[in-house]
Design goal:
Layout (H helix, E strand, L loop, with lengths): L5 E3 L3 E3 L17 H6 L19 H12 L9 H15 L8 E4 L18 E5 L2 H5 L8 E5 L12 E7 L8 H11 E12 L5 H15 L12 H11 L2 E14 L2 H10 L15 H15 L6 E13 L21 H12 L1
Parallel strand pairs: 1-8, 2-8, 3-4, 3-6, 4-5, 6-7
Antiparallel strand pairs: 7-9, 8-9
Helix pairs in contact: 5-7, 6-9
Amino acid sequence: MRRGACEAEPMRGLARPALRARWCRRLWALPARAAAASPAPPTGASPGSGALNPFDRRLKRKQKNWAALQPEPAKCDYLREEVGGRIADRVFDITRTFPLALDVGSGRGYIAQHLTKETVEKLIQVDIAENALKNAIESEIPTVRVVADEEFLPFKEDTFDLVVSSLSLHWVNDLPKAFKEIHQVLKPDGVFIGAMFGGDTLYELRCSLQLAELEREGGFSPHVSPFTAVADLGHLLSRAGFNTLTVDTDEIQVNYPGLFEVMEDLQGMGESNCSWNRKPLLHRETMLAAAAIYQEMYGNSDGSVPATFQIYYMIGWKYHESQAKPAQRGSATVSFGDLSKIEGLLKRGKK
């Protein structure tokens, strides 16, 4: 199992399935009928006041439900399935069987399809979107599906041997509280393995839109959701009570025909922006300018454009007295100064 403090893996590419392109005037927004049905911000949570609760969780539920009801939702699941597989690989790195596991923000079950019943005997999937759970991908593991908010887990303390989460926690308003909830429902010596989007996700799209708005409208508004910095992640997990932490980063690059296909797939993933301060509509001229800037600044030689998704992977354990502990300070029997002598003796032995 990976135990380094912070490691970076090389960027990997991911093929985007061919999808029918269509004109889209919204970035990370719902279709007109669904957007009109979304509730207004509650009192005290106007678009300009989202410091404590930056995301509209009710809107996020609508977005995920809408995406799950599309005729072919699997067409936009390629990124979630890839990351779900990498989470499963980290589960397999731990050589034990987990009698009961929890998948927080499971969506359609992107982790479960890669796991086996020899590793996880029973799984509970939790998500805010009931349609995603109804259309979940079947797996060989006995599964119970529960509609609940990731911020308020409806389970007793010390319940699960394993908690996993893939590409869901970046939409949580109170991430420290969510980590504490996960820590609480874990049994002692239980492990949490998760993945969430990092701060460099979609930087190409963000820069292109900002430059286009500055040029055409004289200013810009946020169109891409705020993300957690990797430097904060270990601290938040430690504050929640986790130990033996591992945080590593990965980047997945997906090539698209153009900017509009990027936005179309984000919408199909249920990854539309749900920030209170979002700007739901963009002018046609601004969108066309952004597409041209995207192509000019980042375009590939074959005419496609890349979209980079930065992924933070995290592993944390709940304390148990049986876990290995660091040695007492001053208990070493060999000093670092003796290492050079050992190296010299080894060189002499080779001669």
